[in-house]
Amino acid sequence: MQQPEPFAGEEADESGPSIESKNPEERITARRLPRYLVSLVSNKPDQDFHFSLFFLQHMTKLQSDGLELVTNIQVAVDARDSDWRTGLEEACRLRRDKLENEAKSSQEKFEEITRKWTDAKMKQTPLDLRDALNSQQQLCEQIVADKNKLISELQQELKASDDRYVKDLKKQAKDIDLIIERMEEQISSLKKSYLEDLEQIEVLNCLLQNMLQGLSLLEEHEDLLQKLRVQKAEEYNTDKIKMDTEVQNLRKKLQEVKFNCHLNEEKLDYKYEVLKKREEENTILKSQLKRKIIRMQDILNNLKSKCANQEKQSKAEEQSLRNDYARIKQQYKDMQKKERHFAALDAERFEKIWLISEGEVKAMAHRALETDRIIHEQQLGLAWVSPPLPFMEHSGPIEHKTLKTASQAAADTLQEETGDSVEESEGLEDTGSGVNRRTVKRILELLCDELVSGFLVESKLLKLVSHLEKNEQSLIKLDCIFTVSTIRPVVLNWGASASQKSSVLGLDMRDDSGDTAYWECIANVIPESKLRLWSALDTALNKYHMLHPN
């Protein structure tokens, strides 16, 4: 006999109160539920059944527990934030004290450096000046070291603060996620509880309706079962006839499938023979390709050996060219040394000739002016006014200030000379500003060493200049530093006696653009108008003598 269909509310009953629940009140409710339904069917409700009270207490407890879970996180965050603010204020106070102490210490050291500069000006010997300079340099380095140490400590504190800030952000994010998670869990729990309450109400309604309709449904099911027995018997006979017919058709299809299988076997045998022949052809082709690969490897090995020989030859040629370059460079330096020597002699001879010629010309100018004065006072009876004579205040060749770029000045300073002339001029060399040339050279070398290690010079350039001499390396590095730093050309005064004393390091071509104007100024000490006056006076005197020969 076929089982009757389940009632509509039986599936919903599974989600209601269970006797196996861990909650004792829920187990009590599950035991009382059948008695309550029976009392509803018999119209005798149980007065002790308190479903509404149980559900209300359950919901209130869920809400209070969820609120406590959320507020616990907030209280913990507030306590941690208070501790963090207290620690931050203490760290700020300590850092402020440290900065004030460092400022006072730096000010004291700076005042000491200033006092020592005054003492250094009173010293006369180079040794004392060098000691004073070294002492000042050590004090400056100590101040810079203290500043760097303080900066390092502040950077470490800043890094620690950043790390702590990131950790706090992560912790806050975790707390927020935890709060959201707990709120979502609480919402889900409340929603689930409300749904369970609603389901309980629906279950009760469904159970009540099902129990009222139970008797009528049982009778209907018995009639339906009888009808189904008759119907299934008829369907069984019909299906049996249909299945016999399908079996006959399947036997015919089986014969056709066997015939097709035999035909496919013959086709597969033919294709197997074809594939076997192709495999033999592929084997022959593989052997040919292997022989070709071996031949190509031999060619590759020959090319590699040729390349290695060519590389060795190139290295030998490069070394030879480097030796030639060093030899030619040394010859060039010797030629420069000779050129400077003869240029110094020519400059000295030129200055002597200039002074002699200038003295003669100035004497002639004085005689011409004296003649002009006599003519004005004795012949013309006029007051004579001396013209402006700026050339009388100048003596010696005209010197011009040469314009040099920072790179050229650095090249002149870094240039090293050997010989007796350098040894004699060691105590007199300067850069035109009172600073010793060796000091400038040392400063430029320190500038190279300090800034090259940073980001101003690329590592590729350092590799390329590594085989050059030290001065050439320093010059290339300084040129890169000046180019990156956009340093403009500077004017160095190589004039008069300073340029002559420092001629050992290099003599530039003399600028004679103002010589012509200078000599013309001396030649025109008597202007053209006075010359015409002299000519007219001479003509008049000649006529006068012709008329009065006695």
TrEMBL record:
Q: Which GO terms describe its cellular component?
A: axonemal dynein complex
Q: Does the keyword Lyase apply?
A: no
- Coiled-coil segments on the chain, per record: 89-116, 144-253, 286-338
- Protein family (similarity comment): Belongs to the DRC1 family.
Localization (cell): Cytoplasm, Cytoskeleton, Flagellum axoneme
Q: Which residues form the Dynein regulatory complex protein 1 C-terminal domain?
A: 517-545
**What ranges does the record give for the region Disordered, renumbered to this chain?**
1-27, 406-433
Q: Which residues form the Dynein regulatory complex protein 1/2 N-terminal domain?
A: 75-176
Role of this protein: Component of the nexin-dynein regulatory complex (N-DRC) a key regulator of ciliary/flagellar motility which maintains the alignment and integrity of the distal axoneme and regulates microtubule sliding in motile axonemes. Plays a critical role in the assembly of N-DRC and also stabilizes the assembly of multiple inner dynein arms and radial spokes. Coassembles with CCDC65/DRC2 to form a central scaffold needed for assembly of the N-DRC and its attachment to the outer doublet microtubules.
Principal location listed in the UniProt entry = cytoplasm
Keywords, A to Z, come to: Cell projection, Cilium, Coiled coil, Flagellum
PANTHER family per UniProt: DYNEIN REGULATORY COMPLEX PROTEIN 1, NYD-SP28 PROTEIN
Which Pfam family is one of those matched by this entry?
Answer: NYD-SP28
Q: What is this protein called?
A: Dynein regulatory complex protein 1
The record's InterPro entries line, in alphabetical order, gives: DRC1/2_N, DRC1/DRC2, DRC1_C
Please tell me whether the keyword Transport is annotated for this protein: no
Its GO biological process annotations read: axonemal dynein complex assembly; cilium-dependent cell motility; regulation of cilium movement
Q: Which domain of life is it from?
A: Eukaryota
Biased composition annotated in UniProt, kind: Acidic residues:
414-429
